[in-house]
Amino acid sequence: MTFRADHIHILFQTVSAEIAASFFSTLRAVRVPCTTIILLSAALVLSGCSDSDQHGYPEQHSSDQNSSNLHGSPEQHGSSEQHSPEQQPAPDRWSVTPGPAPGPDPATQTVRDMLGRTVVIPEDVERVIGLRAGALRMLTYLDAVDLVAGIEEPERRSDRPYLFAYPELRDLPPVGPHMGGDPELLVAAAPDLLFLTFTSRGQADALQERTGIPVIALEYGSFSDERELFFSSLRLMAAVIGKTGRADTLIAGIRASISELQIRTCLVPDDERPRAYIGGVSYRGPRGITSTEPFYAPFRFIGAHNVAGEIPSRLINPIQGTYIDVEQLIVWDPDVLFVDLYSLRTAGPDIRAGTPLARSLRAIHNGEIYGILPYNNYAANYEAILANAWFAAKVLYPGRFDDIVISEKADEIFRLFFGRPVYDEIRAQHGGYRRLAPEQF
User: Which helix (H) or strand (E) is 325 found in, with range?
Assistant: First the structure.
């Protein structure tokens, strides 16, 4: 029997997203053949395991209130095996314990944050500020914009998707520069607590001491190999601000989307998987075509052959970016070339007519060059990464994704993360998903 994309899609819709995600990841981890995965998925359906709604996402049963004792294991745990695309849920390292803590104010709760710090916060949190890369983004993911008391000054001028979704954030009081804000401005904004990413225990303690405002440290993780770490931080933030139901819905939706991508693509024979390259990956600004991502999450979700995945780990810098020689790209000679649209002005000249790459690469000769949404902008925009995965899948495996209209799928994902569509705004800023013609360079 041959499974088409529409068959797999219907099958996936019938299985709970939470069950499917865990089930699929476990089977992939032990290298169970894809045919067996599909058959076992069907068995799950027949056994009555479904509890999903018509869109394939599980119904939301939990409320947006803090539970009486939200906690995880106090044991420290590391990320999944380095650069492994399949992940098992890890025990949360945080805890939130309601009830009076030692001190004069009985209306408090005690938090153990992602760095193991113990922080006493108000029982009712009404005003918060997210500092450093990704913190404000996480608050928008949790539909908590109404709680935000101020934003870092450069956020007001950025074109990140969450600011397209919530332009009112630009009108909030500035609380200082990137990467931590200004203590005096933070105090003036009078938040109940601060969320801080990309920090150390010492830095978080120092900011708390200087401002007198509780600081909760978060880990931003990554979609490639630390997705569960990000989910854990998201749940901690949600528990503190009363958005646990929203966090559950978002996490389930992300897992469902990734699992559907994996199920749709797992039966593709190896010899039918085009060799792909992502170039012009932006790091603190636009870059040339030789800026790439060896562990590009969209490729990993769909089992694409990323030619840059051959780069030795010692040559990879996840902070400053990973760069190759033009000659190496010629040696790899990918079948399909994706270009970060934010870097089109700097990467385009590298591949325009007459350049060594234009004369050498089959992807350019065959017109297989595609613009993909930028995702690196003050930490990763996870919604863009997931939307990129669907576009890459449609390009690389068109027969299995012929039912997907990419503009509609992108807005479906943006609604999952932000509650509203923003693809038109992003397309107006960067240009949307599209095949790139040589004259555009």
Answer: none
Greater model confidence, 329 or 438: 329
Strand segments, DSSP code E, in 141-283 are 193-196, 215-217, 275-279
Q: Comparing C-alpha atoms, which of 191, 242, 189, 180 is closest to residue 214? A: 191
Q: Are residues 200 and 312 in the same domain?
A: no
CATH number at residue 403: 3.40.50.1980
307-328: pLDDT as tens digits: 998 887 767 766 677 888 899 9
What mean pLDDT is predicted for residues 110-121? 94
For 230-299, strand residue ranges (E) read 275-279, 291-292
* Total domains present in the chain: 2
- Per-residue confidence (pLDDT) for residue 46, from 0 to 100: 38
Looking at every residue in the chain, the average pLDDT score rounds to 81
- Of 51, 44, 46, residue with least CA distance to 27: 44
Which tokens in the block code for residue 386? Answer: 């997931």
Which residues of 308-375 form beta strands (DSSP E)? 322-323, 336-340, 369-372
| CA gap 434, 417 in Å, rounded | 23
Structural domain includes residue 46: no
80 contacts 295 by C-beta, under 8 angstroms: no
